[in-house]
Specification:
The protein is an alpha/beta fold. The chain contains 13 helices and 12 strands. The structure holds pyridoxal-5'-phosphate.
Length: about 400
């Protein structure tokens, strides 16, 4: 089996699994307990927080552990909005291709009287700092821009946007779930106030993530209860997952450049090969993209059928966001970059990691063109296109 759906989730690393096991077997104390076993758990928690902070270049007290990327996004956005409401600032800037964990809380805020403005991403499949700067207002409380898009891989100019926001005194959140562990990140140099990350996107376990919140930026708790996480997130810490996350991130950061080079080369070979398929188009910026992301649209093909046939041939791939599969709606990300409905329905996302091999890329390059051809041969839409009864939307 070839696993090429790393944007949906990744295989936990052996080191991450090994780091988790003692937290179940021996080091199972509650980090808040005063006895030795609890203190030992508390030390492991402290060490994990230091590791995460080091990888982002922040202080460990600026890290709050959450249940994952979605919770971190929700907490950052709601904290900034609550601060904005108190200060008469109810304008929020974001982009049209954010993850639903950002868009849904923003929709809710819009219903509660906030003015949410989603910036256009159709030019270059990215947003620019100039766009953000032009849209900022005196009553803007928050700018939220994804570090790297989970469907099409585009990397946003986060450092430039951060500089603009800091200069104008506006809080800046970035959903960096796809970027952490894969791209070098420095929250201080990039002027980031809030950053969301999730372990299962960098070979850690599922159900654990973190929110970086710059010291001094407002942060309120979504979950009320005990005083864990300095009152910012109640509930006994999930130490096994936290230890696994820290180990996975440490590993990724230690090999970041090496992995980036290796995975980008595999990605570029896939993109070059698959773009030769007639009436296809690459989604996202060709160069400024996540090392592992390959996203294409094929005309006259339905994503669902494509994924099923690829699965039968031993290839695990995705269309867009894993959470959106199963719904017949085309991806909001593909529509946001300007793909017509008919084209957006034929999306394929192959997302690679350092665990993929060159041989696997060869196999994907053999199988995908065959499967696309087979599906087109059975497609009434494709027949209409080739008979000239409807126009092709993508170039041959
Ligand atoms: C996966 C993902 C999330 C959600 O993270 P979970 O840990 O699964 O809640 C949020 N944003 C982006 C960009 C993602 O890729």
């Amino acid at each position: 089996m070839i696993y090429a759906d790393n944007a949906a989730t990744t295989r936990p690393s052996e080191a991450a699994i090994q780091a988790m096991l003692p937290c179940f077997r021996t080091n199972y104390g509650n980090p808040s307990s005063l006895h030795g076993l609890g203190q030992s758990a508390g030390e492991s928690l402290f060490a994990a927080r230091e590791t995460i902070a080091r990888c982002l270049n922040c202080q460990s007290r600026e890290i709050t552990f959450t249940s994952g990327g979605s919770e971190a996004d929700n907490q950052a956005i709601r904290s900034a909005a609550a601060w904005g409401a108190k200060n008469g600032k109810r304008h929020i800037l974001s982009t049209a291709f954010e993850h639903h964990a950002v868009l849904r809380p923003l929709e809710e805020l819009a219903q509660r009287g906030f003015e949410v403005e989603l910036l256009d991403v159709s030019r270059g499949h990215t947003v620019t700092a100039a766009q953000v700067e032009a849209a900022l207002r005196p009553d803007t409380c928050l700018v939220s821009v994804t570090y790297a898009n989970n469907e099409i891989g585009s990397i946003q100019p986060i450092g430039e946007i951060g500089a603009v926001c800091r200069q104008r005194g506006v809080l800046f959140h970035t959903d960096a779930v796809q970027a952490v562990g894969h791209l070098p990140i420095d929250v201080q140099a990039e002027n980031i106030d809030y950053l969301s990350l999730s372990a299962h996107k960098f070979h850690g376990p599922k159900g654990i993530g973190a929110l970086y919140c710059r010291q001094g930026a407002p942060l309120s708790s979504l979950i009320l209860g005990g005083a864990q996480e300095r009152g910012r997130r109640a509930g006994t810490e999930n130490l096994p997952a936290i230890a696994g996350m820290a180990t996975a991130l440490d590993e990724c950061c230690a090999h970041l450049e090496e992995n980036r080079r290796k995975v980008s080369a595999l990605r570029d070979r896939l993109i070059q090969g698959l773009c030769r398929i007639p009436h296809s188009a690459l989604n996202g910026d060709p160069e400024n993209r996540l090392p592992g992301n390959v996203s294409l649209c094929f005309e006259g093909v339905e994503s669902e059928s494509l994924l099923i046939l690829l699965d039968q041939r031993g290839i695990c791939a995705g269309a867009g966001a894993a959470c959106a599969s199963g719904s017949l709606e085309p991806s909001h990300v593909l529509l946001a970059i300007g793909r017509p409905m008919a084209v957006a329905h034929g999306a394929l996302r192959l997302s690679l990691s350092e665990y993929n091999t060159s041989e696997e890329v060869d196999e994907i390059l053999r199988v995908v063109p065959e499967v696309v051809e087979r599906l087109r041969a059975m497609s009434p839409v494709w027949r209409e296109l080739t008979e000239g009864k409807r126009p092709f939307l993508l170039a041959p």
